[in-house]
Amino acid sequence: MLLMANPRNFDVVVTENLFGDILSDECAVISGSLGMLPSATIGGKVNLYEPVHGSAPDIAGTGKANPLGAILTAAMMLRHSAKLDQEAAAIETAVNQVLDAGYRTADILRGAQTGLQLVTTKEMGRHVHAALAEAIDKNQSRHGV
Question: pTM of the predicted model, to two decimals?
Answer without folding.
Answer: 0.83
